[in-house]
Amino acid sequence: MSVTDSPSKVYLVGAGPGNPCLLSKKAERCIQQADVILYDQLVHPFILQLSRPDAEWIHVGKTPYTRYIRQERINELLVEKAGEYQRVVRLKGGDPAIFGRVTEEVDTLRIHGIDFEIVPGITAASAAISQLGRGLTERQVSTNITFTTGHFKDDVENEIDITTLENGGTLAIYMGVKRLPVLMDEIMTKVGIDYPVAVIFNATRPNQQVIGGTVTTIADKIAQLPERPGPGVTIVGEVVRDVETIKPAVNNMPEMVLLTGERTRCIDIAYDIFENGGAALIDDREVSELHPSQHEILTAWLENYDFTSEQIIE
């Protein structure tokens, strides 16, 4: 496929925390109209299946603690694909403008004169606190919020910004679970208050898990887990007080349904499954003319998922 008379445009799209029902309408439309999608590791597979069967899929995810595609290569791919297609979607988990390296990609697009648009998504901290029935700010409890990252480039051991805690606010730490003991020690040393802490793994997904504690206890609680449940965001402050009494129950046997049939007919059924706390994936390899990249990626997904049930959609 080549570019027509219409100019190319790159959409830097936030896929939200993982639950497809939390996609913005704009994000959904961008995915549906995309000619090519460059997607991150944390994007739920079903979200990609909102695209046309002939759209190209390219995985550019950064899996923690493993080799990954360097940001420079992602920037190059954005330019390359903008030369091949009209509608390029760069699909990121959460919000692309919050620890999503969106500035580096925007700078590349500007240098090459490529039109672009940023489409916000629900960020992890907002998704996580929603599952507790609380807010990141609360009148007379917490009137300010800081988003910070616990993981720095090249594993540099930088200190986090805890100014907000010193003023009684809320601290949301992204990508900090691995360094949690160090981060909690830093907070206790500087602030001296054993604030409530919640770590929310896989927020809004069927396998969501919430671990509550305090600055001095949370690291040990996480260390006692048999395995790390997945990506997590850590929230520190009074807004997560009594978290063990208000957190939702863990779904130990989440539904994972394989829907076999024509894609557009399966999508509404899949949304209903997600709304009811399950998850779904569509196998339309026999009935759709899939782009080779979609066929390859979908086949790999189907080999790696354990499905609890299957529905054939006529």
TrEMBL record:
Name of this chain's protein: uroporphyrinogen-III C-methyltransferase
Annotated Tetrapyrrole methylase domain residues: 9-218
Domain of life (superkingdom): Bacteria
Family: Belongs to the precorrin methyltransferase family.
Gene Ontology terms, MF aspect: uroporphyrin-III C-methyltransferase activity
Native species: Staphylococcus muscae
EC number: 2.1.1.107
Recorded name of the encoding gene: cobA
Keywords on record: Methyltransferase, Porphyrin biosynthesis, S-adenosyl-L-methionine, Transferase
Keyword Flavoprotein part of the UniProt annotation: no
Cross-referenced Pfam families: TP_methylase
GO biological process: methylation; siroheme biosynthetic process
